[in-house]
Amino acid sequence: MKKKNYIDRCAYYIMTAPGAILIFLFGYLPMFGIILAFKDFKPARGFFGSPWCGLDNFKAFFSSPDIGYLTRNTVLYNLAFIILGTVIAVVFAILMNELRSKTKVKFYQTIAMMPHFLSWVIVAYLVYAFLGNTYGIVNRSVLPALGIEPIKWYSEPKYWPYILFFVRTWKTVGYSSVIYFAAIAGINPEYYEAAIVDGANRFQLAVKVTLPLLRSIICIQLIMAMGGIFNSDLGLFYNVPMNQGALYPTTNVLTTYIYRNVTKIGYSTAAGLYSSVIGFLMVLLTNFFIRRYDPDSSLF
Length: 300
Description:
Elements: H1 2-8, H2 10-28, H3 46-49, H4 56-62, H5 67-98, H6 102-113, H7 120-131, H8 137-145, H9 160-185, H10 189-197, H11 202-226, H12 234-239, H13 248-251, H14 254-260, H15 265-293
Helix pairs in contact: 4-15, 5-9, 5-11, 6-9, 9-11, 11-15, 14-15
């Protein structure tokens, strides 16, 4: 009987094999490289021949004067992306669900999804077309029309937290809202019919019916997002500000810092391991609190 069950499931094993192999090759096998965080890597001596240095790379990283603002920037940006980004994606999905015309839904979803397929290099030049100091649309047309002096956008760090948040939201909101829109489409219409009978309006339907039924998926997305709270999109923080040194106080995050120090193999590996461990702990902590207050919405 057991042999028959194995044969019956053989097709499923074959289907999952490519995915499992890819995860092993690109997810688990590279984890062996974390030993470089504990080595004084010498290219001439190779991976195994380089001498061990204990925690020296971690000591150098944590004693860096940049660690404070790097951690601050990384955490604050990601919290804003997670919290406000989730709110915007959910609201967008609810608005799409309110449209009665399928043609309009497809049109607006397509428009919102298109930026997701643009590379960050293209997005960076689109932003530069608007914010360029000399020929940017904002400085040449918008600000003069408002009687405002042109702004040197790529020399003023204070504007970039808002610019980066706007650009990321514009690029990701369409893709991020897909899972919420699918969840809303799967809600039993009888819930809405019952609420309408009780006199609920469209806003009350969204607040009293849709949002409570989306709670589980929102919590799961939150748990998964918290795992990357110390990992930032390199394309957003490196390409969009054009790697301008004047903007480092507000655009430099752990990911870009690691990238700029990639030639220091052991040092950058230690920094990457630090962000990964914190992300893992944040997943456990977030799941713990969600399971404590709403067990049905926790991931594990």
